[in-house]
UniProtKB/TrEMBL annotation:
Taxonomic path: Bacteria, Bacillati, Actinomycetota, Actinomycetes, Micromonosporales
Keyword Lipid metabolism recorded: no
PROSITE patterns the record matches: PROKAR_LIPOPROTEIN (PS51257)
Range of residues in the leader sequence: 1-19
Record's keyword terms, sorted: Amino-acid transport, Signal, Transport
Matches recorded under Pfam families: Peripla_BP_6
GO biological process, one term: amino acid transport
Designated name of the protein: Amino acid/amide ABC transporter substrate-binding protein, HAAT family
Length: 391
């Protein structure tokens, strides 16, 4: 491993997003062959499309800011966007295009399945892959894959401890049969049992399902006093809504909830607790990169940003920092192997919570602040900030 590298990057003035962009393709970043290619693949279609579009907002916003400020040492960023669909198949198709056709040295990805499928191609073609959404433990210790999303290995035990301290003892799981859902069970269970709690039920569902009544009946019959629901986007909202309709009165919680929980779950989502990355209230961290991002995002979209566009935004500025660092050392900044050597153990600014730094750890996970939240009146309210993933 290389020695730790500290990056210091500024934040260009906020600007309006590129107009008239299609779902995928080359988003203008300046003329000529001197541009720095940047790939990004998100679920732009399918059940997780709303999340993918939010990641896209953050990425495009950062690219626009950097390019409007003159690019990186005078060269613009050329953003290549692909629909990875959030699936393994979509991840392979998108990564093949980035690595073999576009020759892109740095790609932003999300979701565990998509990222895991893309990683072997990234390693073979020496392309740095930065995951901003997937949290499966399987994402760790893989060549050329770095995770700027706090892993469930760190979040699961922290959430389990929080819920146990609140007095819950009988836990039931229900979640999607994928690396995210399985990772939640596998990381929370040992901590829960070590604390003295019991797991009374564990049910899994397919992300493509819409009726969870059979699984929820078994959860209700087990008599839990807390239910952990793990799913992405609208699927989580559907599970929570159907759980209440099925007569499950126990409180519910889970990792990395998104707006799909509240938009679909409605009143059933009230009181749901989660552990997640978050974006700072800009009034509480004035002058920070995170506050500038949050202010600019709200000015553009008339809404407070969640961690999702924040993660995409941060990953672009990380790319900028890597390129600048490579140039400062006289190295080829368009070579993925060079960027890989620089990113190992790197420390860089936090564009989401502010006042802290983000650090890649030896296992390619990230050490950063995360928040415990609760849904109140249809909104996520931060109840506590903790440090997750430090080693």
């Amino acid at each position: 491993m290389s020695k730790a590298v500290r990056f210091t990057v500024g934040l260009a003035a906020a600007a309006t997003l590129l107009a008239g962009c299609g779902n995928t393709g080359n988003i203008a970043g300046g003329g000529g062959g001197d541009r720095y290619k940047l790939g990004a693949m998100f679920a732009l279609t399918g059940p997780s499309a709303s999340i993918g579009q939010d990641f896209r907002k953050g990425v495009e916003m950062a690219v626009k800011e950097i390019n409007d400020a003159g690019g990186i040492k005078g060269a613009k960023i050329d953003l290549r966007l692909e629909d990875g669909k959030g699936t393994a198949e979509g991840g392979v198709a998108a990564m093949n295009k980035f690595a073999n056709l576009d020759k892109t040295p740095y790609v932003i990805t999300s979701t565990s399945a998509q990222s895991l499928a893309a990683q072997p191609i990234a390693a073979q073609r020496k392309t740095v892959l930065v995951n901003v959404g997937g949290s499966s433990p399987d994402l760790l210790n893989l060549p050329f894959l770095y995770n700027d999303a706090v892993n469930i290995n760190a979040m699961g035990p922290a959430l389990a401890d929080h819920l146990y301290q609140k007095g819950y003892r009988k836990l039931a799981f229900i979640g999607t049969a994928d690396p995210f859902g399985e990772g939640s069970v596998n990381t929370m269970t040992p901590t829960w049992k070590k604390l003295g709690g019991t797991v009374v039920e564990n049910q899994s569902v397919k992300a493509s399902d819409t009726d969870y009544s059979a699984q929820l009946l078994k959860v209700r019959q087990a008599g839990p006093d807390i239910v952990i629901a793990t799913a992405i986007g609208q699927t989580l909202g559907q599970i929570v809504q159907q759980a209440k309709a099925a007569g499950i009165n126990a409180p519910m919680a889970g990792p990395l909830a998104t707006a799909g929980l509240t938009s679909v779950g409605g009143k059933a989502a009230e009181g749901f607790e989660d552990i997640s990355m978050s974006v700072v209230d800009p009034t509480k961290a004035p002058g920070t990169n995170a506050a500038k991002f949050a202010t600019a995002f709200k000015a553009q979209y008339n809404e407070d940003p969640s961690w999702i566009p924040g993660a995409g935004y941060e990953a672009v500025y990380l790319y900028k920092a890597l390129v600048e660092n490579a140039l400062a050392q006289g190295k080829n900044a368009r070579d993925g192997a060079v960027l890989q050597n620089l990113i190992q153990n790197a420390t860089f600014p936090d564009y989401m919570l502010g006042g802290s730094e983000v650090k890649f750890l030896p296992d390619h996970s990230v050490g950063r602040a995360v928040t415990l939240r609760e849904v109140k009146d249809g909104k996520f309210v931060v109840t506590q900030t903790i440090q997750a993933g430090q080693k």
